[in-house]
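For homework, think about our next protein:
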Amino acid sequence: MTATHSLQAKSQHLQNKSQKTMADGSIRRKAFQNFIRNHGYHANLAQPKTFSEKLLYRKLQQHRWLEQQASLVDKHAVREYIRQTLGEEFLIPQLGYLQDANDFDFERFPPPIILKATHGSGWNLIIRTADEYSLADVRALISAWLGCNYADNFTGEAQYRLVDPGVVVEPLLTDAHGKVPVDYKFHCFDHGKRLIVQTDMDRFGDHSRDFFDEQWQNLDLQLKYNRSEAPASRPDNLPAMLKAARELSQTFDYVRVDLYSFEGKVLFGEITFVPENACGKVSPAQQDQQLGDAWPLQFFTDDERGLTNRWMNRVYALRARLFPG
């Protein structure tokens, strides 16, 4: 499939998805089914203990709390929070913010650039040259992004439901070889008391992933992607990155903070509350438990929405067990 056809297919897929809103029951049923399929065991949301169970609990039982975090997952609105918490120097320059696809053109935003939808996860488009895609196809993709609610049409992740749809345009950061820089994702547990660093190499190519402790010791841990043959070297500004991640995680029992190290600077990427939509398999299995132990999950008064929800969770768990497909 050519790049043009791939872009057109993405736009059509988004348009089709935008016509269907997932009901709460469908979200829960699919979440339990995906959990068994990806993790190989049944989630216990009555007493979540593993990292994966706690992520699923957060997704399914903490809708109101997640909705309150909308401004932090919004890739445009979060900039003000970063500006006040860390400083302007931690922000990637923003070339533009779009809420109308017709506002995009190559003269205003000459490549190389990256487009990022503010209201979802993984909705990015790298444009290296002006002739890589037609203007009409790029505008069609932007329009399709703007027409979707990531929570209601895709994953049920409530933190995205109230985000105002938009697209940010940023300069494309690349190294000397033309590749995007290493993505450092800091898993911050217990209000930043413990940090584990995830490195994602070649995210738009041969994607690999490794984990390190704060002393940059490579951990026996895998999440979704294979470990790399040549793990990333320790960044010179690791202490500054750890400090920034801690400052951004002070108010959370768990959060993932994504940062870049680019030309000696620490730059902010995004904040994530439910990595991999609770579907990323953690291996070996004991690491799932150990990461869960590091997360003192905070329970809120509105987590359990009555007896119906507790019983329905059991029903969905049973359905997923009997009908895993």
